[in-house]
Each structure stands twice: as structure tokens, then as C-alpha cells.
Amino acid sequence: MTSLLKSIDSGKEYPLNEVRFTADNGELLDVQHDLEGLKKQFGLSKEYFSQKRALLNGQPTGGVWHFKELVLPSIPDQEVVSKQEGNTRLYRSKKISSWLGLNSDKFFLKHEGENPTGSFKDRGMTVAITMAKHLQQKAVTCASTGNTSASLAAYASEADLTGIVLIPKGNVAVGKISQALAYGTKTLVVNGDFDDCMRMIREAQEKLSAYPLNSINPFRLEGQKTIIWEILLQRNWQVPDWIVFPGGNLGNTSAFGKALHEAHQLGFIDRMPRFAVIQAEGASPFYKAYKNGFTSLKTEKADTIATAIKIGDPVNYPKAVRALKWTNGIVETVTDEEILEAKARVDAAGIGAEPASCATVAGIKKLIASGEIKPNETVVGILTGNILKDPQVIVDYHFNKKTEHANPPHEIKASINELKNFL
Ligand SMILES: *Cc1c(COP(=O)(O)O)cnc(C)c1O
Fold first, then answer.
1. In the chain, at which end, N or C, are there fewer CB atoms within 10 A of the end residue's CB?
2. 1-117+218-423: CATH number
3. Dist. CA 93–CA 52, nearest whole Å
């Protein structure tokens, strides 16, 4: 059996090469691989991936395409559109771990802001744009809180595809819209919010045959799975107790769950880590659904300073529920104030990340305080986007905030004596 598309509840199957994003009954689709077949064909094992030093089109793969066998095994190497995404660092930080009250040997931050366009979206984009090319699509689109459009723009340029991005008016960080414009994609500013843009993209797929590169596209999630594969590889296949990350459209939640489920099925790991998905209080439909035992999802009007997770109607909800069940996961919320405080700590540790990413660290803080995460447990937090994505939030904080971490600049006369005062 080769890979195919399979609806997540009723198991209806469609060919991998069919351009579709939901089953006829509306269910989301998984890319379903024949794990046993692939295991035999390639001799897949922990050692296989630990020792693999493969080349893709003459360059060392690393990152996403290091795991090609589990991402998109049937695509010829020459068709892959890649900017060597992935291979991101797994940081330790004594400053942050001691603030959190965690053992510094057991706390790690995986920095997805160190991807080619500055967010984890590149991991999904390399796979989905490769597929768009393979399926001979002409135009690719997305709704975006910013990072998806930045990533789409760069990859559409590389692949020579027409890119059109829809972004909600007034809600996109300056670094992100700058990238979309600079990489040369058509940028449409919509008088509405992200959820309005997302609805338009789904309609444009049906009515205008525009190929969507949002995380409803199951190939995006195959790429994002490799964040988990890389963590396992970097930790020499030691499973952490917790993996903590922000939740917006819930693509990562879904992808990470699938990665671990597959790793478990392949026998690479013998237990599951627990997920803690962190939402901003003002954009927390997943948290509320979690609290009611996932009996229903109530969409909401989202509001938070963390624009990358300002989403009230997450498209991947059913897959995310499944992921939480697989990992005995939990969902927590944090306030914008808590996000900003955590961000000040992450930034001042010399690591830095955009606001949505720092919801991860704010969430860990809260979960340690509530006793959910124990001080001696191993915790991997995901930083999803680069510090330079949202400079306005940083400037506002350091110029205007009266907190212990605010670090405003000082104006001085051009004299060495004035400089002396500061040394
Ligand atoms: C897209 C994005 C998120 C949200 O991820 P989902 O997979 O949609 O839940 C979080 N942080 C950053 C920086 C993002 O770009």
C-alpha cells in the first residue's frame, strides 16, 4: 500500500494525488502512510534516523526531509521545494529554568523561530508547496495571522507559483506583513478577522480552485510532524514528560499528536509524553471545549496581543481532540500580561521569541504553580516564532511599561562623562 488520504472518523479513503481537503461528508483528512510497509522497505529504526546522513539534491537534508520516509515517501527528490527548513536548536537556559522553578538539565526550548522565514510554518510549507507543484496547481492561497503568509510568499517565489494571501486588517505584526510584501506575493488586507479570512479560503478552494496552504492542508501537518521527530532525535529518543506549545488553529497540536502516535506504532518510543496546549485567555475556544470534556466547540470572537494565536474558530479542532486523547494532554490559558512577562524573561535570557511563542513559557509557569507540572519533570517547550516578527510589542513594552524588566533606552549628550555614569 502506498500513502493515501483518509478521513479521520469514518476512514473513507481517497488517492494521495486527489486535490481535496475534506472528505465528502466534511471530515478532515489525514495523510495515511503504510508504516509497516515503509518500515520494511527502508529498514526504519531509531538507529536508521540517528545514523542517516542522506543528501537531497546534493545537499545534506537534516530537518524536515531527514524524515522524508515518514513525511512524503513517494515524491521524487527532484520535486522537493526546500530551503533546508528545520534543524532548529534545542536550547537550555539557566535563567529561564530557575525563574520557572525547573531543573535546568531537564528544561529545553526548541526554537522554531530559527527557520528560513522565522517560524515553524516553513516546515509545513516545504511539504505542502512541494505537493502543490506535484499536483500542477497554479495559484496558492492562505488566510494568515502573518507567519503563514510570510512563509507562503517565500516558497511561492521559490516554486514559481502565484501566491495570494489574505490577512485581517490591523492584526498582523509588522515583521510578518513586511515579509509577505518583500517576497513578492499578492497581499489582500481583509476587513474582518482571521476566521473570516479562513472562511474565504475554504470557499475559494471550492469555487476558484485556489490551492490552500493553511493547516487544513494535511501535507502542512506532515511537515510539522518533524518538530517532534527532531526533538526525539536530539534527545537520543528519550521521551520528555511534557511537550508544551501554543494553540491557535491547532495545526501543531494535530501534527504533534500524529507524529507521536506514529512513533509509538513504529516502536520507536514506548510511552507518550503529555501535551500542554496553551491558549491566550481572549482566544481560548479549545480550552473551553477541554473544560466541557470536548462535548462541543463554541467559536468565539478572539482578542489577544499574541496575534499568531488570535483565532476563535480553529479548523483542526477534531484532530486536536484526538491528539489530546493520545497524549493524555491538557489545555491551559494565560493572560496577555502573563505572556508579556514571560516574553520579557525569554528575551532577556538572550533567546527571544514573538508573543505567541512566549505563551508556552507563561503556560509552563502557571502549570508549575498549580502543581500540574512537577519541578523534577522533563519539559520541552516550543518557541514557534522569531523575536523580530513583532518589534512593535517589544518597543511598546520597553518604552512604556513600568515593570522590573522594562529596559528603556537613555538619551545622553555626546560626552564621555555621561557614558561613564552608566558603566
Ligand atoms: C501559526 C502560529 C501559531 C499557532 O499554531 P497552530 O498550529 O495554528 O495552533 C503559534 N505561534 C506562531 C508564532 C505561529 O506562527
1. C
2. 3.40.50.1100
3. 29
Q: Whose CA is nearest to atom 2 of ligand 1?
A: 308
Domain positions in the chain = 1-117+218-423
pTM of the shown model: 0.96
> How many Å lie between the centroid of ligand 1 and the Cα of residue 306?
10
In the structure, which protein residues have their CB atom closer than 6 angstroms to any atom of ligand 1? 119, 121, 147, 215, 246-252, 308-309, 354, 356-357, 384-385
The DSSP element (H or E) to which 242 belongs, if any, is strand 242-246
Nearest CA to ligand 1 atom 4: 248
343 alpha-carbon distance from chain centroid: 17
Pocket test for ligand 1, best of 171, 309, 388, 389 (most atoms within 8 A of CB): 309
CA of residue 383 to ligand 1 center, whole Å: 10
Give the helix ranges, DSSP H, for 108-239: 121-134, 147-159, 174-182, 194-208, 218-224, 226-234
- Per-residue pLDDT 10s for the chain (423 aa) are 689 999 999 999 999 999 999 999 999 999 999 999 999 999 999 999 998 887 777 776 779 999 999 999 999 999 999 999 999 999 999 999 999 999 999 999 999 999 999 999 999 999 999 999 999 999 999 999 999 999 999 999 999 999 999 999 988 899 999 999 999 999 999 999 999 999 999 898 888 889 999 999 999 999 999 999 999 999 999 999 999 999 999 999 999 999 999 999 999 999 999 999 999 999 999 999 999 999 999 999 999 999 999 999 999 999 999 999 999 999 999 999 999 999 999 999 999 999 999 999 999 999 999 999 999 999 999 999 999 999 999 999 999 877 888 999 999 999 999 999 888
